[in-house]
Amino acid sequence: MKIAFENGSYESAAPITVYDAAKEAGVLSRDVIAALVNGQPADLTMELQADADVKLLTFEDAEGRHIFNHTAAHILAQAVKRLFPEVKLTIGPAIDRGFYYDFDTDKPFNADTLTALEAEMKKIVKENLRIERFTLPKDEAIKLMQERGESYKVELIEELPEGETISFYKQGEYTDLCVGPHLFATGLVKAYKLTSCTGAYWKGDQNNKQLTRIYGVAFPKKEMLKEHLEMLEEAKKRDHNKLGRELGYFTTVDYIGQGLPIMLPKGARGIQLLQRWVEDYEQSKGCQLTKTPL
After folding, report:
1. Which of 14, 37, 84, 197 has the fewest CB atoms nearer than 10 Å to its CB?
2. CB neighbour list of residue 275: distance below 8 Å, 6 or more residues apart
3. Are 18 and 54 in contact (CB under 8 A)?
4. What residues have CB less than 8 Å from 281, skipping those under 6 apart?
5. CB contact set of 132 (below 8 Å; sequence gap of 6+)
6. The CATH number of the domain where 206 resides is what?
């Protein structure tokens, strides 16, 4: 079978992993973290059994970042289970600007909790745990999650069609229901930051139990995290919500709502001037004013 890469190819008479094929073809670099196999995201440990077109991915690729962040979410969940074994796992996807994981916990998480979790994540990264994929029939998958007390995972599996083969990812003592793909080891996630902790409803339904959602960002280099955090600080300085309050343009009160600003004299005057400018401009262009019923 022929494995075609962007900058080379390799022919193998027997099944071979993406990693080994790339290595034999001489196209494997240190920053490669995953792959697209015939256009579909894949682990580097995926075994190829037929001709395939393979694109190797790095963190610079959108698909590569997604896989990287997904693995970071699993590292967070493993840290939570180590520090708080009673917590139940729900879902933890990659998102455009990082990742999050939702947890069912009766313990309120705060800034100190996030600091403790970051410290535990550091240990998991240092352990450089191998991340391995395995599959189970549906009934065995349900049994595995029941034995671990992961009721939300059981619910997700039960919703899948009968006869479905269920995939899991394992790193050390931690096992999670997941389609993947993932990095091949936890040690690749060199830098990360847990940025916030909020509430979220299971499956986005307010009739379901409220969960605790932890957001984070992750990078392969500490310098990249430093640059990202500096960028966020600069953005905060230019935040109109912050500047508007500091300059005395508006305020808010809880009983009215944070999304309904009360314009102070300076802000009201600014709106008045803008309205007059718009009216004068429209009039200069020959526009005629109409009013709809209030």
Report:
1. 14
2. none
3. yes
4. none
5. 45, 169, 170, 171
6. 3.30.980.10
> Under DSSP, is residue 252 helix (H, G, I), strand (E, B) or coil?
coil
Same structural domain for residues 67 and 190?
Answer: yes
For residue 102, the surrounding DSSP H or E stretch is: strand 98-104
Q: Which amino acid belongs to residue 220?
A: P
pLDDT digits (tens, 9 = 90+) for 220-267: 999 999 999 998 888 877 878 878 888 889 998 877 876 788 999 998
Q: Where in the sequence is the domain holding 265, given as residue range(s)?
A: 239-285
Task: Say what the pTM is.
Answer: 0.83
Two tokens, residue 58:
């790095």
Give residue-wise pLDDT tens across range 58-93: 999 999 999 999 999 999 999 999 999 999 999 999
Domains identified in the chain, total number: 3
How far, in Å, CA of 53 to CA of 33, rounded?
17
Other CB atoms within 10 Å distance of the CB of residue 177: 21
